[in-house]
Amino acid sequence: MTNLQESLRREFLRTNRSGAYSSSTLVDCNTRKYHGLLVVPVPELDDENHVLLSSLDCTVIQHGAEFNLGLHKYQGNNFSPNGHKYIREFDATKVPTTTYRVGGVILKKEVIFQHYEDRILIRYTLDDAHSATTLRFRPFLAFRSVRQFTHENSTASREYTEVENGIKTCMYAGYPDLYMQFSKKNQFVFQPDWYRGIEYPKEQERGYASNEDLYVPGYFELPIKKGESIIFSASTSPIKATAMKKLFDEEVEERVPRDNFYHCLVTAAHQFHRKDKNHDRYLLAGYPWFKVRARDTFIALPGLTLAIDEIDYFEKVMKTAERDLRAFMEEKPLSGKIYEIEQPDVPLWAVWAMQQYAKEVGRDKCYEMYGKLLQDIVRFIMDGKHPNLRLDDNGLLYSNGRDKAVTWMNSTANGKPVVPRSGYIVEFNALWYNALKFCALMASEKGDMEWAANIEALAAKVKESFVETFVNEYGYLLDYVDGTMIDWSVRPNMIFAVSLDYSPLNQQQMKSVVDICTRELLTPKGLRSLSPKSGGYNPIYVGPQTQRDYAYHQGTAWPWLGGFYMEACLKLYKRSRLSFVERQMVGYEDEMDYHAIGTISELFDGNPPFHGRGAMSFAMNVAEILRTLKLMEKYSYQK
Q: Residue 407 and residue 493: Cα distance in Å, rounded?
């Protein structure tokens, strides 16, 4: 913890279920513009999150001597006030807890984010002290979007109002009031000032502007006795001082301890949950900057719910997603809360998600819940109603991705896709074949023989055309084919043609695909997005935005793709590959102590040492690791 080279690379993330969060490094030094103690959505302004309270510096005072436990990075690589040197221990098992030692003073800090409320609670406990001790708290305010910076200005309001054991303040019109309160009486000293030139190294690395000024309205001061606990609350709504202790204890009780790999992943899975004011349920694609995206929702949904036996949450999210999917298919106004629902593979991934549900609860229940939706999706595609998904005479689906990215490989540069995947796209058509076979089975079991026969006949045509179009003499699958434009790059998208329940490939072709993925794409952090032997291989995701855009899908490794690779291995080789899959899982278990503690980064460098990059927590990655653990359990019981 006292080694900043190590501790500044490790981040924590606490969330509620409204999209709000609290995040920083383990030593409470913000290194991203997205970091903050209280970061909340402000729907009245826009659909971004906003940093209200950036940080809270605590100072221990004894005999008139002050020891500031805070830490900020300023321009010129200057760190101040170096409070990390007092840290003796950090424990994130249940509630992230930091223990400070200042001479004879031992102070424990526990931080928790309230479920379903935009409220951060911090409990300070004086475990030991040999003389009278006072604590001083200095709040650093930002009141700005996570995508922007704030700087010293005369517009910011300095006004504040005293509330029970604290104050409320609001720097700019349109923002909610920020309530800062304590569980015991204290003195607030109004001493307004701007702390200038605070710097965020993660933004520097990414080629962005990286410094800002933060406003400090003054400080709170209160005495604390040995053995005493006091609680600080920061929120957009007031709280009764007498309610803080009970609320803190209740929130602690609800937490799943991060005492093993699985529990870390379950906790991470819950962080993607989002409930709005209408009680609709969503899955965020990741933290800190992702919103709710349709493709991510359907890919992540089985792993984040079914794999941890939370079937009810699958149904709640699916109910919300179905409403938007139907609105899109019926050309009705969209809610605007689920982004990218118009992407051509979204309905295909929706079918796949419902197929996983059927495996968990049985096909009868699945038909009862989603039979009509499944049929409507297939008809929607067959009738050519999707604006960018054409069913050709050969049974394959054609999508135009030359000018606009239409697949998960969606990075763009100069307004054009970096990887312009267009035409017959390999995973689209693997998903299409799988969807037809699954829906035909469901229809035949329910006695709808005519419909079942129609889509079975189409599936047979798809199978034949798929092999003719994608299988090449080198034993792998072409990534996409658009007339005379054929992409020979070795990419991971072919793995879906093996991992899905229904594959258009024969056993030998499937084994060949898995072998090439193993030799050229497999890393300890998932599958590479491009083989090192293919042109344009760019495995290190660093540098300015444009440089990173060109590397995003050109060799970086993605754990969620690794999940489908593991499924393909287990499908082909059954229990004989279990120990191999277990070894792969160890590569992810190490991640629980690095980058964002207890979760999985968005992507990893494709070359050793496979550094985690991008967003600190990514839903599809967490989901597919959880689904792989569930698959391992299933195969370990099979003979």
A: 10
What letter would DSSP give residue 158? -
**DSSP labels for 486-512?**
E-----GGGGHHHHSSS-SS-HHHHHH
Strand 105-113 and strand 119-128: the pairing is: antiparallel
> What is the spatial distance between Cα 326 and Cα 332, in angstroms, rounded to a whole number?
8
- Residue 307's identity, in one-letter code, is A
The tokens for 224 are: 């604390």
pLDDT tens, 503-554? Answer: 999 999 999 999 999 999 999 999 999 999 998 999 999 888 888 999 999 9
Per-residue HEC secondary structure of 447-482 comes to CCHHHHHHHHHHHHHHHHHHHHHHECCCCCECCEEE
Task: Name residues whose C-beta falls within 8 Å of residue 7's C-beta, 6 or more positions apart in sequence.
Answer: 1, 25, 26, 27, 84
Q: Measured between alpha carbons, how far is 541 from 552 in angstroms, rounded to an integer? A: 7
**Residue-level pLDDT at 156:** 96
Average pLDDT over residues 228-238: 97
473-505 burial, b at 16+ Cβ within 10 Å, e below that, comes to eeebbbbbbbeeeebebbbbbbbbbbbbebbbb
488/393 Cα distance (integer angstroms): 24
Pairing of strands 78-80, 87-91: unpaired
Give the CA angle between residues 467, 473, 475 to the nearest 5°.
Answer: 75
pLDDT per position as a tens digit, 175-228: 999 999 999 999 999 999 999 999 999 998 888 888 999 999 999 999 999 999
Q: Whole-model pTM above 0.90?
A: yes
8 Å CB contact between 79 and 92? no
Alpha carbon distance 533, 625 (integer Å)? 27
Region of 362 please: left (phi>0), alpha (psi -120 to 50) or beta.
left
The pLDDT tens digits of the residues spanning 366-385 come to 999 999 999 999 999 999 99
Q: List the one residue out of 491, 639, 477 whose CA is nearest residue 556.
A: 491
Order of strands across the sheet with 119-128? 87-91, 97-102, 105-113, 119-128, 229-235, 178-182, 166-169, 160-163
